[in-house]
Write a sequence for this structure.
């Protein structure tokens, strides 16, 4: 399956009954692949918290409700959690595990394509996405970089629907990256010269992407509810 990389701040809201408070926890757990050398390492991190209104849905025959926990357990919800619209492609590896291919990017004079293996586990109260591996595909030079970094991402989403008038989603994202400093002129610089600009770049990235990804998740939820409503009517 393939999906074009698109995002957009759009979702529809309609009046809904009261839901119970549930939690979705999305984790991409660090997969260490740093070499065992004694090279200097830069530790980069960024966080972003975001709140957005959560639509209430009371549609379909008999006033059927469509809880967000149902959506996150549905294949459409899994795709939304993986954010497949931002991927070049993805494929199922079985056992709730997916290989996700990000669009290729140009890095200096080289083209590189990040690839992640993610495992999705959903229950009635929690959805966990765990990163089993993360690597670069491309030229031999770029693929050698896989042993010089380690990354982790944790995205915790909670929602409160006890207040039927003002239900909302809260998102708390934390991104960490460890880079091995092994080439000149960076080895001649203090680690802070790498960590300072690196943290700024990562924070800017999260500040831009998290609101878009959250709105895309809600839009996917809205489309799923419409399809279920049409099918049940």
């Amino acid at each position: 399956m393939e999906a074009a990389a698109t995002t957009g701040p759009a979702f529809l809201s309609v009046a809904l009954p009261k839901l119970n408070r549930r939690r979705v926890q999305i984790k991409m757990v660090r997969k260490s692949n740093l070499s065992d050398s004694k090279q200097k390492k830069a530790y980069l991190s960024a966080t972003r918290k975001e709140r957005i209104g959560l639509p209430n849905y009371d549609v379909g025959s008999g006033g059927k409700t469509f809880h967000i926990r149902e959506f996150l357990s549905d294949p459409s919800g899994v795709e939304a959690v993986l954010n497949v619209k931002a991927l070049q492609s993805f494929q199922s590896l079985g056992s709730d595990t997916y290989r996700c291919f990000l669009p290729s990017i140009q890095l200096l004079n080289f083209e590189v394509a990040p690839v992640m293996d993610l495992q999705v586990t959903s229950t009635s109260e929690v959805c966990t996405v765990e990163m089993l591996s993360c690597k670069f595909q491309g030229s031999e030079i770029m693929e050698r970089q896989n042993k010089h970094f380690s990354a982790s991402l944790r995205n915790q989403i909670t929602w409160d629907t006890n207040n039927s008038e003002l239900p909302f989603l809260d998102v708390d994202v934390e991104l960490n990256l460890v880079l091995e400093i092994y080439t000149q002129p960076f080895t001649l610089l203090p680690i802070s010269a790498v960590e300072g600009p690196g943290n700024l770049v990562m924070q800017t990235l999260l500040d831009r992407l998290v609101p878009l990804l959250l709105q895309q998740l809600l839009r996917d939820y809205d489309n799923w509810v419409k399809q279920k409503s049409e099918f049940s009517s």
Q: What stands out?
A: Confidence is low (pLDDT under 50) at residues 1-20, 26-32. Residues 192-232 form the longest helix (41 residues).
